[in-house]
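Hello,

Our lab assistant flagged a job as stuck in the queue for most of the afternoon. It eventually completed. Since we weren't sure the result was trustworthy after the delay, we are filing this so someone can double-check. Below is the sequence as submitted and the structure that was eventually returned. Let us know if re-running is recommended.
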Amino acid sequence: MIPFVFIYITLCSLYINTIFRTDTTNNIMHEFSKIICECLCLMVSIVIIILAGLTYKIKRPHCYIQEFYVPALDLSLNSISNNNRTSTTTAVLINPCLFFDLAFENIMTDHSVRYGDVNLTFSYGRSAVANYVVPTFYQGMSKRADRREVVETSGVPWEAAVKAVSNGSAAVFRVDLVAQPRFGFWFWYSKRKGMRIGADVEVDGFGMKVKREDIRLTNLGASKSRVGIFVMFVGLLVTLLCFF
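-- returned structure --
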């Protein structure tokens, strides 16, 4: 966006100077019209630059896994189920669901966030075992939103996972989040920004995540540099030089 802003304001300044320099008449109306036209174009350029600057100021929300529970790995439940089995052959029922509590935190004090569908992928090992979509929602400035949901898995090697936690190790699940939120500033909304974050979640023999603190989903892509901000101010300087 910044290169287009730079091109726009430069062309505007050159256009104004070309128009008024073709007229050799040096009267008051001529100078007054030139000043008015330059001021209007400068005001529009400044507004566009401010909006472009707000775009580069945007910070994506922080997302945390607050709770993560896997009942199939809760050995206390499995032991009760085993004790309640009769002498006849009875299959042990496994609850294939994952219970999770996801928190979205808008860390910006001057931008709201309008999420589209938030796509979650749950994996065990290298295989995806569940998908879930958090419906679109709005989040105000400096607000925190919680989403407590349940998703049913398919294809988890439960025997290997139970064996791992039974030996005192941890079963590792992967949570990946993909979203394209828009950020609002008063009446203006940015274009959708890509957001790809994820984290590993270790689960113990109680079916709970090992780490008691909230697990932050971290960015999977490269962060943008601040070169655009530098170009923005250079563009403003060039525009002022062209006008005056």
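-- support follow-up --
The delay was a queue issue, not a problem with the job. The result is valid. The chain has five helices and 14 strands. The radius of gyration is 28 Å.
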